[in-house]
Amino acid sequence: MIRKNLHWIAAMVLATNLAFLMPAGVMADEGKKKNSNAADNTATTTPIKHLVVIFQENVSFDHYFGTYPVAANLAGETRFVAKGGTPSVNGLTRGLIEHNQNSNQPVRLDPSQNYTCDQNHDYLPEQQAFDSGLMDKFPEFTATACNSSFPAVQGLGTDIVMGYYDGNTVTGLWNYAQHFALNDYFFGTNFGPSTPGALNVISGMTGGVDPTTSKNNAISEVIAGSVIGDPDPAFDDCSSSDVVGMRNTNLNIGNLLSANKITWGWFQGGFTPSSVVAGQAVCATTTNRIDGTPEKAYSAHHNPFNYYLSTSNPHHTPPASAAEIGNDGPANHQYDLSLFFSAAGAGSLPAVSYLKANRAQDGHPSNSSPLDEQVFLVNTINFLESLPDWQNTAVIITWDDSDGWYDHVMSPILNQSNTSEDGLTGTSSCGNGAGSLEGIQGRCGYGPRIPMLVISPYAKKNFVDSTLTDFSSVPRFIEENWELPQIGNGSFDQFAGTLFNMFNFKNQRTDIVILNPSTGQVVQTHGDGND
Questions:
Q1: Please, how many CA atoms are within 13 Å of residue 236, restricted to the half-sphere of its CB?
Q2: In the predicted model, what is the mean pLDDT of the chain?
Q3: What's the rounded Cα separation, in Å, for the pair 345 and 328?
């Protein structure tokens, strides 16, 4: 149940987000006239009527949860002490901190070291770092020493790739794990950077590039018709000149939802154009990090739906009205992030929502940090918990790739590949290639291990799940919950592991957990929270 004394949280978070994000030309008040939510009346196989997928940037499991639930608790840092009986994870505390097989040993990063540079997380170097499963070549293949722009970590050199945070920095995430469910056997569907992760979380499919859409140097980001790099989407005015698009026969979860009249949306920071020039959208809006540094808000290659003509919104057209949000219309289900908060606050939370933070808050090294993304994550979840729709909502938090950060767990290789860009088991090889799904090459995977949390009134409490899952488990959950057909046509959804083990659908919890967005510490809890 939602307590009346939490309504101020909804108002506070909504006002804060709208002050920074609300685009001109869309009236939030119009949505407030809507008193019922059609999504609540849509048939589902579980009590979940609303799924919110928060898709952050560039984190391996060990980078954020390697020592969970034990934090160093050094003087001057935000304190974290785990609850009694907290389950352990498959982390670094089994001898891998002191006796690691890599040439450099893992190093704890403290809160003052929250800003770091980007590591090498390309398709081939990540495989080479895995070294046929020995997991011992990260300093050689994915490490990038940080320069003077990152003074707090500059002295670490290539040791930085072995860096990990604990509950004194990623305090909010560790507290969510304490109160909800964490998976320690969740993987990127394939090796590689952001775009493959973004495509996989909506389709489980990076193959099927339409060569007629490829322009300029984008061809170097594709191998055997599969996306392995970060080309921008072909159907986006705010893309660079290096773009690709997917074949018209390729489907994503948005296509399935639209075909079944189920409300959905992709909500991204900076999506509203800063200007329109000769009919073309310009995306130059900036937002500030917590240290005051302005960052460009929108990243085109983080938007997977614009790689598909069928679900694209090339000119970043706003919805014709607040009532359109989640439904068919000029925006084609793609919106500015601010519209998620206005729609949800007005009682129009779509059945399925994907959220992409402003770049200043997406957690990506070099343009964001764990403390920046904590502000976004906590404010968003505090807001959702204050809504009447929370009683049948589930939130999935995960990250689009590992950034090349060290993780000690070898991923199961469910799909082999033999291309010039493969190197997991030898030159040009990820296995012998005979096991490639639908014969599609360039999709070696699973890739690196990634954190994933489920936050919901139906999430198991203080629970660590080790079910084998990956990005395509997200569309698989949507397919199963709303009784949709599988995407198929080479999608990993056909053998994706289930997320259902992180839930107890027979018991609706009544507890509300409110965190402080700055510290990540628990501010207050309400209800018994019994499982």
A1: 29
A2: 93
A3: 20
Residue 353 phi/psi, 5-degree rounding, is: -130, 130
Which string of DSSP letters, residue by residue, matches 309-342?
Answer: GGG--TT-PPPSSGGGTTSSSTTTTEEEHHHHHH
Q: Where are the domains of the chain?
A: 4-318+334-526
Cβ within 8 Å of residue 113, ≥6 positions away: 152, 153, 163
Predicted model pTM: 0.94
Dmax over Cα atoms in the chain, in whole Å?
61
340 vs 389: CA distance, rounded Å = 13
4-318+334-526 in CATH: which number?
A: 3.40.720.10
> Dihedral of the CA atoms 305, 309, 311, 312 (nearest 10)?
70
Q: How far apart are CA 443 and CA 207, in angstroms?
A: 8
What is the C-alpha separation between 428 and 369, in angstroms, rounded?
35
pLDDT reading at 93 higher than 60: yes
Of 35-39, 211-215, 328-332, 514-518, the poorest mean pLDDT is in: 35-39
Phi and psi at 209, nearest 5°, equal -65, 135
* Radius of gyration of the chain from its Cα atoms, rounded to whole angstroms: 21
Q: What are the angstrom distances between the C-alpha of 475 and each of 41, 247, 481?
A: 21, 19, 10
Asked if residue 34 has pLDDT above 60, the reply is no
Task: In whole angstroms, give the CA distance from residue 291 to residue 134.
Answer: 39
